[in-house]
Fold:
Amino acid sequence: MVREFAFAAAVLASLTADAHTMVTGWAYPPACCRGSELGGDCERIPDASVSKGQRGFSITLRPGDHHLVTREHRFKIPYGDEIPSGDSDYHICLHPTEHHMNCFFAPPDGV
Structure:
């Protein structure tokens, strides 16, 4: 019985560690998100962190804007490289470290 419980717990942990789902029901694609809801590398970021220019989005992340960020980072995302978010918020995935932007999500009206 203990073995069955341990197996079930391992299966459940592996299912929840692949990607995480937003309250609104959409999930980050597995290629973008590595980790779980509590320890993943994807997170909503403040609208104030994102500005729109002629060629794309400029993102300035400061400590507190994303749980992985320990110092200021700037990223440029050309228009067309963003992924539509499933809500009205901006989201970013940082992987393998806080210095690397893996995926950027913008609201459908974000362009």
In short: The longest strand covers residues 56-61. Strands lie at 42-45, 50-52, 56-61, 73-78, 83-84, 90-94, 101-106. DSSP finds one helix and seven strands in the chain. The first helix runs from residue 2 to 17.
